[in-house]
Amino acid sequence: MGKQGSHKSLRPEFQGWHSKTLLLQGLKSDSSKCNSCRGLYVGKKHIRAIVVMFGLLGCLFLLDSLIISFFEFTNLQPGTAPNNSTVFQGRDSYTYSKQSPVYMYERLLNLASSALAEKEFKQESSNLWVEPFRKASSWKPCAETKVQSNSGKPVQSNGYILISANGGLNQQRVAVCNAVAVASLLNATLVIPEFLYSNVWKDPSQFGDIYQKEYFMNTLKDDIIIEKELPPHMKSLDVEAIGSQITDADLPKEATPADYIKVVLPLLLRNGVVHFLGYGNRLGFDPLPSDIQRLRCKCNFHALKFVPKIQQLGSILIQRIRKYGARRSMLDTQLLGKFIHNNKYHEAKRGSAKYLALHLRFEIDMVAYSLCEFGGGEEERKELQAYRERHFPLFLERLKKNSTSISPMNLRKLGRCPLTPEEAALVLAGLGFKPETYIYLAGSHIYGGNSRMEPFTSLYPNVITKENLLTDSELAPFRNFSSQLAALDFIACASADVFAMTDSGSQLSSLVSGFRTYYGGDHAPTLRPNKTRLAAILRENNTIKWNRFEVRVKKMILEGQKAGIRSYGRSIYRNPKCHECMCKHH
């Protein structure tokens, strides 16, 4: 590390001030020497020397300011390494001013740091960047073929289905594909879905602002009837007044085809229209006819293409992450469309920088709702409780009525606590990822901000986000549209060489991992920590040896990568490896 007073040991922003201090000290020393000298001329020459000295000092201050400004500007330029002091702040970061870093596993972090330092100049194991089970490549996408069924596209529609989908980008995507499946099931005409405005997401985006409407309709034209709007004679109908409005209360969460035929079809036949208000995850995965299941896959993996505006900026984002190296996979083609050819540098530069995308679910709402503790002491407990009282009052009421409660310690043992940035870093270190690995962080509104990210960036300093890779002018059209910004994260995560999730229940993680399974073959590994097993490993923080920690983490991740054929009742969006979605080649 060097001596405390060493110029090189100082952070860059303080090195200029250090230089000035040395200069002033030198000037004082010289001044003392001069005072002891005899025969010094006093008069105009002395005054001129003082003026020159202050002029020189002023120039040095100006030059220092320019240098600092230059480096601050460079840190904000696209494609440069991020200034981590600004990456993680934002309206949702909820960090205390000047808060010290929060460590829960300081001993393990020190062991990880030493182990990574030893590996820095060694040849990296290539199996970190490939799917460990090569049989994955025997499954190929094939849901785009025309859905085969006895009925096919209905000759005459039973009526119109209106959808108002709630939630953010990924919840709405699931709702759209579920609506396509329901329209086919009920022989109905689907009107292009609407997206509800949410006080949480605060995004007025509609279907056509995110997805290519014409492409969506054309891809599914042989399967269901889709219209952009209701016919003129039905627009004035009060759907709620005629009893055709359906809410979550009318259908179970994992509704079956029988539920829709019993509850929805009579209304559709009677009134010619039904409106699913606040529609989301209201269609189960099994039992479901294979043609309906395949249609749901076709919608998710083929029909929903981001609009050119999103594809274009997504392409620029990927180029900058990869340092303008070219990589053209099936994943990139599906995500970026014609903008995959937008890389004007690919002829000049060979190769491509690999990167890992991490979806770190450590936002304030997730943290508060979990009821876990994260090493921040009494201040953290008070802040999280205050947040619950403001945002989750009904949740707290239910907790009070519940006679049995689980302690934060037991919640962690059960694997119910969100992984902290520190825990995520330890998993990556246990797997052997080197410190120079580029890590794209999706979302980036981390609870605690830099105080929480400090343990992570101490091991992996090359953390990048869309905010520090794209310019303000490039992001400006997306600023007030959280779903469109989320689409950029979706692209960056799905296209990554490795995707790591910290919460398997997240819709983004679920959809991204499914997309990578469908299009990635054996070149798109996904890391899924088992939080229960990881909690058991981390409880040995004070005694476990690093080599033992590595063995157990690698075993945990490897078992999570054994994604076989989709099991009954499991999400087809998360694991499309089944005969309704993919074809197995021997």
Bulk shape = globular
Low-confidence stretches: 1-45, 61-87, 89-97, 345-350
Query: Structural class, judged by helices and strands?
Result: alpha/beta
Strand count, sense and closure of the main sheet?
6 strands, parallel
The fraction of residues assigned to DSSP E strands is 5-15%
Q: How far is it from the N-terminal to the C-terminal residue, by CA?
A: 57 Å
Query: Radius of gyration, Cα only, in angstroms?
Result: 29 Å
Considering DSSP H and I runs of 4 or more, what fraction of the residues is helical? 40-55%
Summarize the structure.
By secondary structure, the protein is α/β, with parallel strands linked by helices.
Indicate the topology.
Elements: H1 12-36, H2 44-75, H3 84-87, H4 106-119, E1 139-141, E2 160-165, H5 169-185, E3 189-191, E4 194-195, H6 207-210, H7 213-219, E5 225-227, E6 245-246, H8 257-263, H9 265-271, E7 273-279, H10 290-303, H11 308-321, H12 330-336, E8 355-359, H13 364-370, H14 377-391, H15 393-401, H16 408-413, H17 421-431, E9 438-442, H18 450-459, E10 463-464, H19 466-469, H20 472-475, H21 482-495, E11 498-501, H22 507-520, E12 526-527, H23 531-538, H24 546-560, E13 582-584
Parallel strand pairs: 2-3, 2-4, 2-7, 3-5, 6-7, 8-9, 8-11, 9-10, 11-12
Antiparallel strand pairs: 1-13
Helix pairs in contact: 1-2, 4-17, 5-10, 11-21, 13-14, 17-18, 17-24, 21-22
